Amino acid sequence: MLDGLIASLNQIDILIFYIININMQNQVFDVIMPLISSVGYFSIWIGLCVLLYVFGGRKGRNVALVCIVALVFGYFLTEILKYIVARPRPYVALNGIRVLTDMSGSSWPSGHTVASFIGAIIIGRSYSFKFKGKRCRLIYPLLVFAFLVGFSRIYNGVHYPFDVISGALIGIFCALLILMIEKDIIKFNEMLL
Domain Phosphatidic acid phosphatase type 2/haloperoxidase, which positions (predicted)? Predict the structure, then answer.
């Protein structure tokens, strides 16, 4: 029974992958999705945190430090899971798909999605902006962007939908876990300075 459930979920995963990768194909997405995808690297988010640390004042330093800790934790957790599960990427396992970006290694979970959700939650919860006279939290547009990064990974042919969903959940988990010890991280950093 469990084998049948897993097989059914795998078929749904592949079906949704083909719908996004093949049926949603268009010239605009072919240009935009690789660009969106490229912002999901852990190194890009770490770079943003470094800029925030240098130019963001005391608040920026604290947010950047907490985010970097979460990103490093998320990176190592993702790499361990990729090694253990070793799920082949769609372009290795499936025929007739479109691949718009180069990737190597295992497919599950999506590291780009993990990093994007970590950054969206930790940076987004700390900042807001004015829009039509109202104060809006940055977390909402950043979460939309993180979703787009995950979607782009499927569209680009390098991840299955379940890889992306898992990546989002792992990113949320890592962010919330590190936010639980945020004060300790900041206090430890202040002791070092």
Answer: 63-179
